[in-house]
Amino acid sequence: MAEKLDLISKCVRTFQDFPTKGILFYDICPILKDPKALAAVTDLFEEHVRHTYPQVDLIVGLDARGFLFGPLLAQRLGVGFVPIRKKGKLPGLTSSVAYGLEYGKAEAEMQEDAVSAGQKVLIIDDLLATGGTLHAACELIKHQKAELLGCLVVIELKFLNGSEKLQSTPVFSLIQY
Length: 177
What we know:
Structural class: alpha/beta
Pfam family, one: Pribosyltran
Largest sheet: 7 strands, mixed
Number of helices: 6
Order of helices and strands: HEEHHEHEEEEHEHE
Organism: Labeo rohita
Keywords: Cytoplasm, Glycosyltransferase, Purine salvage, Transferase
Pathway: Purine metabolism; AMP biosynthesis via salvage pathway; AMP from adenine: step 1/1
Enzyme class: transferase
């Protein structure tokens, strides 16, 4: 496990002042470029979910980087995958929630029929910063009357206290800064 975490950590790079001045952006693109690092992320998430949430029915991924890890994990677990997108990107009836980012505001939405009441759901994304995006996703899942088991992230920026915004929702992060 330590070897996999080390490989993943070495692939994360930072960019100062992106997307706006004062933001330090944590880039996971090198993980995607390295098949061993991508497999390590998927392996560690899979091990955690199989051990902690064997009853999971659905993986929900956040736009856009949750779309990169979520389907891989869902396939390994033999469960479905559902996207939560930025407002206006999904057809049909949708539910949406507005939220704040560390550098602006946004709205997240999902299709009304994507998640059924009672389904056991895990949310996945690349990064937990201030918690706005994940909190909005949690609210969408609760609106569908599904059972939110927890959230999975590659990176958690602990100094921004984003997990506090998620209240009692458990967060599993591979790397913490």
